[in-house]
From TrEMBL:
InterPro entries: A-crystallin/Hsp20_dom, HSP20-like_chaperone, Small_HSP. It comes from Leptospirillum ferriphilum. This is Hsp20/alpha crystallin family protein. Belongs to the small heat shock protein (HSP20) family. Residues 38-152 form the SHSP domain.
Length: 152
């Protein structure tokens, strides 16, 4: 005679977690080309820090292995756009054959709305050692002034 088992929602969630954990371990999704090698199938987004001081807003972007000629910085309609591409390394380079490639490659685009006091006409960008620094000057602060008006 079959016995009845009490339903345990916690056990069900634990079982679901065990079954899904291999799925999440594969993010980014891998596309197998053969048994020896896997290539990533997603574009990447570089990490960004944004700070401000009294005179400007500063955007710092980590772009390892990206040449400055392959980076575009633009401002349009109050939106700062940083785009470019990190080229995929060839599967065999300088006599090396890669067995595993985990770094992400491809095109990227990061966009940020600028604050109202950012001056889109006074922007500088420099790149050194794989780090892009974009400096956006703030507009000159308008100070209230009083004007005496003679009543006639």
């Amino acid at each position: 005679m079959p016995s009845l088992l009490r339903w345990d929602p916690v056990r069900e969630l634990e079982d679901l977690g065990r079954r899904l954990s291999p799925v999440f371990a594969r993010v980014p999704q891998e596309v197998r080309t053969d048994e020896r090698q896997a290539l990533t199938a997603v574009d990447w987004a570089p990490v960004v820090d944004i700070s401000e001081d009294a005179e400007s807003y500063n955007v710092t972007v980590e772009l390892p292995e990206v040449r400055k000629e392959e980076v575009k910085v633009s401002i349009e309609n109050g939106i700062l756009a940083i785009s470019g591409e990190r080229k995929k390394i060839s599967e065999e380079k300088n006599g090396k054959r890669y067995h595993r490639i985990e770094r992400l490659y491809g095109s990227f685009l990061r966009s940020f709305s600028l604050p109202d006091d950012a001056d889109p006409q006074r922007v500088t960008a420099t790149m050194k050692d794989g780090v892009l620094n974009v400096r956006i000057e703030k507009l000159a602060e308008t100070k209230p002034r009083s004007v005496e008006i003679e009543v006639g």
